[in-house]
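Appendix B. One record, verbatim.
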Amino acid sequence: MNKRICLPVVMAAAFNHAATACTGITFKATDTSTVVARTIEWGGSYLASRYVVVPRGHSQQSYAPDGKGGMEFTADYGYVGIAVQSEEFVAEGINEAGLSAGLFYFPGSGEYEPFDPQMRERTAADLQLVSIVLGRCASVEEVIKFVRRIRIVGIVPGASTIHWRFADKTGRQVVLEIIARQTIFHENRLGVLTNSPRFDWHLTNLDNYINLYPGSAPTHYMGGIELSPLSSASGSLGLPGDFTSPSRFVRAAFFQTTAPQPATGIDAVRLCFQILNNFDIPIGVEFAVGDTPPAMPSATQWTSATDLNACRFYFRTMYDSRIRCIDLRGIDFSLTEYLSRPIDPVQQTEIVDITSAITQK
């Protein structure tokens, strides 16, 4: 195995050997804008995430389990996104056609087809599928047709499988899962996604929370005793608050469907970041008593929101809560060069002292 193949495989192995807890939501504004947003969690170590800008014509090769490489792919569309551990592993991004793609970990639920060296030219590594699709496809329908022509494999034996979210500017969104070696596309009309179990299980599980509703519960009597709400929003009593994937799915669905519809795309972006604040995972909760978590401020390393109609990619990080934006319409993807830069050049949260502004006369 040559160095080019070996290094990302080692990184992928490190990234897979612990739990991840990503949460995705979707909003459609009254001006017809569609915004998809998500968190990405990893409490084991700093992901060294980078934003990448990929021009049209940029060529890459997929990794393969035997170290000899898989399919070669060239970008027909320019795209931007955030990569984790290695710049080849784009976890979330959007291309200039308004297609969004993102990977979500899917431990214990999926099963890929085995790697077949005879089908190397049609083999794509799971951690690179986002990059391949963003470079090749302009719509969800094209994604479905393309994925059915290739074989997706894992590049680290025993590592977690992945499922994917794809959305385009028409508002259509699908979830791709590979179950028992079978490729399955789910239409995601709800627009919520977390991790395992499989997507249709999460939808069925929502039936267990039929009692949830916005607002406050009415006063009623039990055995002659008057029961009254102790505070507002008592209609949400029973909403799960833990960080497991099923509970996050229910919570995300409830917050998303009870929020007022935003007027514009930028309003939807701001709303997504506000809602996803509820899914930030404190660094210590994923570790057993006695285990020492890494010296990071959060297990939620970054959060992104993507306006599919405006072709704008927004993100903020655990070190910098400012919302940063990359406007794809301001990039000439026929002329720009490939770019890869850390999302956090300084890994320390800035604190601004405003005392002097207060004391000035």
